[in-house]
Structure formats: C-alpha cells, structure tokens
Design a protein that fits this description.
With about 475 residues, the protein is of the alpha/beta class. The chain has helices spanning about 10-25, 30-45, 60-70, 90-100, 130-140, 200, 205-210, 235-245, 275-280, 295-310, 315-320, 340-345, 355-365, 400-415, 420-440, 445-460, and strands at about 50-55, 75-80, 105, 115-120, 145-150, 170-175, 190, 225, 250-255, 265-270, 285, 310-315, 330-335, 370-375, 380, 385-390. The strands form 2 sheets. Strands 10-9-8-11-12-13-14-15-16 form a 9-stranded mixed beta sheet, with helices on both faces. It has a 7-stranded parallel beta sheet with strand order 3-2-1-4-5-6-7, sandwiched between helices. Helix 8 links the parallel strand 8 (about 225) and strand 9. Helix 12 crosses helix 13, helix 14 (about 400-415) packs parallel to helix 16 and helix 15 crosses helix 16.
C-alpha cells in the first residue's frame, strides 16, 4: 500500500509539506533550526574555518543557524551578507541577530576559508542568478575551499536540474527528501530529517490547497462542461456546475435534459454532444452526476476527450459504466465511493481503511487516473503517490456532497495537474463542510459551494494563506 508523496519532492510538494507541518504546530523556526543543525554537523568535519554565503530567505536562515552552531563549537565563522538587513525575511533577520550574538562576524564581501557554505538561493528562486548572488557563486566556484550547499546548490532549478550557473558543491545537505534535480548526484547528497511530522506527509493539509495556481486572466481558468442529469436526477449536474463556477472556472456549461435557471451557468441540450463540446471549447469535462445508464453519452464524452485532449472528471453514474468503456490516456480524476469502487474493480471490498487504500491504488493503476475514494477518511491516489484526507464531518453524507466535490475537482483540474487538483478538492470541500458546521450547525450542498472559495482564499479556520 502506498501512502506518501514519492521519493523525490518537487519544490511545490516540499512547500506544501512545510505548510502542512506549520498547521500541525511544527513551524518554520523549528524546521530552520533543525536544517541548520544538520548542515553544521555535516560541515564541521570538513574544516575549521567557514564562510557562509547568506541569502534573503529561508535558506539564508538555515545558513545562519549553521553559522551559529559552528561558532559555538569554536570554529572560525564569517557570514557574507550582500543585502541590506531590511531586505531579509523576518525569521532570517532573527537568525542573523542570534548568529552575531554567538560570535559570527558578518561581512559585506567574501573572505577565503577552508569551507564555503551556500545558503544563498533556495527552491523558490527562478532563473539564472543575478547581481550579488551571481558574483558570490562565481567567487565560490573559483576558490580552493571545499563547498557545501544547503538543500540544493544555488542557481539549480530544483525540479528540472537546469543549471546555467550553479554553486559547485562537494556536498549537499537536502531537507526531508531529495529534489528531482539531485537524482543523478545522490552520491554527494545527505538527506536531513528536519522534524516534519508524519501526518504532514500522509494527509492532506492547507499546503495542498493554498499553493494552487493563482487565477489568471479571463480565459485562462478553464471552460468546464458538466454532462449529466436524467429523468430521475435533474439537480445533480447543476450542483456540480455551480461548484465548478464558484471554485474558479471561467465558464461552465451544463449539458442536461433539464434546465435550471442560473444566470452564471450556460445550459445546452444534450444532442450532438461531441460537436457541442468542441464548439464550446471545453477543456475539462465532468461526466456522470445524475446521468443514469446512458452509455452512448459517456462514449461521446470519452471520444471528445481523446480527440481534443480535454481533461476528465468521472463521477457517479459514469463510474458504473466505465468498466465497459475505454478511458483515454490523459489527465483524469475519478471520484468513487466504496460501492462504485466495487463496480470498478469487479469485486467485493471490506469497509476498512486498509482495504480502501488498496482499492484506490488498484483503481488508479487499472484506469490510469487519479482517484479520490470517498469515505469517512478519503483516499487520494495518483501514480506512485497517495494521501489521506480527514477533513469533513458526518453532515457530509447528505445528498449532493459528491456532486460538489466533483465540480470543485473539475474547476481545480482546469488550471492544475490531477494530483494537485484531487488533493486540493478533497481538502477544500472537507474544510468547507467544517466551516458550514461552525456557522450553521450542519453542512449542505449550497453551503459547501459557497464556502469552498472562503477556504481557498486562506482557510478561515486558522490556517493563514502564505500569499
């Protein structure tokens, strides 16, 4: 069973885990102290004199902790700060004061030492180093000293490994998990445990939502089509469509036999479906809410997705039909409950967390999709990654909640990857349910739809936005 975020962490995944940790009470200052301590321990055996190159952000703070720790060991330590103190992140400025109080000399220009520690540019830095950072990297690379980089070498793109000008490290102390850029040079990498709690990794948290891409200009946030509805279930697709619209999609089309009057939604009769989807330029199609056993409609949607490259969310009745259909390769999210999971796998499943984790993994592998297996604890699984989602409450068993989740996932998928959209949707809808309960004493689809934007803005239940 896979519960975890993979062996290599992108910069975004690492930041999400850090935010999740902070929400659990393991804040940035604690992680910074642990990171710097690891760097100091690794550097201590490399020499007796040290020059630490200090950046403005969190990595600079890590370096200053390392400088303080080395100074307290009796090492000769100098920190090179090429920026004004007022430019430093607040927590980094605090570490600078602590380092000075511990005997670290702060310089504006670099001096030779046996070891140079790179604490300049972190995983959030973009492009080729410029200005003072560039000059210091070039100086360090030409020096005869041994060189240690904290987390990743300054100038290296953490996800791709692209490097036009990088700090030339002999040793890299990376935090929590290796970054993709380090995969081919692991022989010089030490992975440091900086105190991130297990639940920050195994469960969704605010970092999985709050790092979603910012809304772009009109036309950049998705054209979502919701295909569903039948004689028995007229309202389901409209709940999904409203959720998609309130969750940020630019335009939402509803292809349903029944018309409800919402001025923000665009209704279409469900004839010549593939042609209409093409005419509306839908780049995400959610199919299934209230659809019934309409195999022909599902087939048209799948054909459109295969031909156009549109992303898919498969929910509700579509999941009952999928075993008989050919799901195209691409970006797909499936949102089954346990009963639908049994149909998808063609076998009985016990209602235990362990069984549902295995089922989500098997569905994801069988259908090439990201899966949100709904339950008291949701299981989100995609490729070699899986997390649990514990947000929500018992009121979210009411009808329509799944429709809201599917619509929210469709809107997030319009501007993000399936793994991130699935995590964000599960977390956001669950938190919205908690907010509804706090405000109303219950949760219902209308309240969920209106509360998801509040949660996405910064989570009003005490989890601040990092923006």
């Amino acid at each position: 069973m896979i519960i975890g975020r993979g062996e290599l962490y992108t910069a975004r995944e690492m930041r999400a885990v850090e935010l999740n940790s902070a929400a659990l009470g393991f804040g940035e200052e604690l992680m910074m102290e642990n990171a710097g301590s690891w760097a100091a321990r690794a550097a201590s055996v490399m020499g007796n004199s040290f020059t630490v190159l200090v950046g403005k952000g969190g990595k600079g703070g890590d370096g200053l902790v390392a400088a303080r720790r080395l100074a307290l060991e009796g090492k000769e330590v100098k920190a090179v700060l090429p920026y004004k103190r007022c430019e430093l992140k607040e927590i980094t400025r605090k570490q600078l004061e602590r380092a000075e109080a511990s005997g670290v000399e702060v310089l504006g220009e670099p001096e030779e030492a046996e070891v140079i520690i790179d604490a300049l540019l972190g995983t959030g830095s973009k492009g080729v180093p410029r200005g003072a950072a560039r000059e210091l990297i070039e100086w360090a690379n030409s020096a005869s000293a041994r060189r240690l980089a904290i987390d990743i070498p300054s100038g290296m793109e953490p996800d791709s490994g692209r490097c036009e000008l990088c700090f030339d490290a002999d040793l890299i102390v990376t935090m929590h998990k290796p970054k993709p850029a380090l995969a081919k040079i692991m022989e010089i990498v030490v992975v440091a445990d900086i105190g991130i709690p297990e639940k920050a990794v195994t469960h969704t948290g605010p970092g999985d939502l709050l790092l979603s891409p910012r809304r772009g200009r009109k036309g950049q946030n998705g054209r979502v089509a919701v295909v569903g509805g039948s004689g028995l279930y007229q309202g389901a697709p409209w709940l999904s469509a409203l959720a998609a619209f309130k969750s940020g999609a630019d335009l939402v089309f509803v292809y349903s036999p029944s018309r409800f009057y919402y001025p923000e939604l665009l209704w279409r009769e469900r004839r010549d479906l593939k042609e209409q989807l093409a005419r509306d330029r839908a780049n995400v199609v959610l199919v299934g809410p209230g659809l019934g056993e309409d195999m022909a409609t599902l087939a048209e949607v799948l054909e459109y997705a295969e031909e156009s490259g549109a992303k898919l969310v498969l929910d509700a009745d579509a999941l009952k039909l999928v075993p008989k259909a050919d799901v195209p390769e691409g970006e797909v999210i499936m949102t089954p409950h346990l009963g639908e999971a049994k149909r998808l796998l063609g076998k009985d499943l016990a209602d235990t967390l362990e069984e549902r984790i295995r089922a989500a993994e098997e569905i994801a592998s069988t259908y090439g999709a990201c899966v949100v297996l709904k339950g008291p604890v949701d299981v989100v699984h995609c490729g070699d990654k899986g997390v649990l989602n514990e947000t929500g409450n018992e009121w979210m068993t009411v009808g329509g909640t799944g429709d809201v989740l599917a619509g929210t996932a469709a809107a997030f998928l319009a501007r993000d990857e399936p793994w991130w959209a699935a995590k964000a949707a599960a977390y956001a809808v669950g938190r919205a349910g908690e907010l509804c309960y706090e405000e109303r004493g219950r949760a219902d689809p209308e309240c969920l739809i209106n509360s998801v934007p509040k949660v996405a803005k910064g989570d009003p239940l005490n989890y601040p936005s990092p923006r």
